[in-house]
Amino acid sequence: MGARKHNKAEELKQARKSTYFAKLNNVPTSPRKMRLVADMVRGMNVEIALHALQYSPKEASNRLYKLLRSAIANWEAKNEGKRIEDSNLYIKEIFVDPGRALKRVQPAPQGRAHRIRKRSNHVTLVIDSRTATQE
Fold it and tell me: Would you list the domain boundaries of the chain?
């Protein structure tokens, strides 16, 4: 590996150490429905987002609630002794990518068949501290 690639790889490794994220793969919900909930909490403080997800009537909000709790647990594992309330955590990035689509066939009248695509998605959630970005 060349020196430039090596330096870039080291920079990315250092940046990844200060990034706290959680991923959820193959969620059996369409990406469009999941994006509605993801857009609702993007940029929010973690405490407010937890409450918003907990009391949202959408089915996808339960999965995002657990994913946010997982990201917070990842943050706590690397920052032992710090309190979440003092660190001012917020949702830095959240994005929903399409996953595998299961293709099914449903019988239709007159010997025909309709294709049913059962869509899935992958969700990635990144949290960060507002105080760390300002310093």
Answer: 20-134
First to last CA, the chain: 33
Cα–Cα distance for residue pair 32/97, rounded to 1 Å: 10
Q: Which of 28, 46, 26, 30 is nearest to 94 (CA)?
A: 46
pLDDT at 81 over 90: no
What pLDDT was estimated at residue 134?
55
C-alpha span between 32 and 5 (Å, rounded)? 37
Homologous superfamily of 20-134: Ribosomal protein L22/L17 (3.90.470.10)
Single pTM value for the model: 0.85
What is the C-alpha to C-alpha distance for residues 70 and 66, in angstroms, rounded to an integer? 6
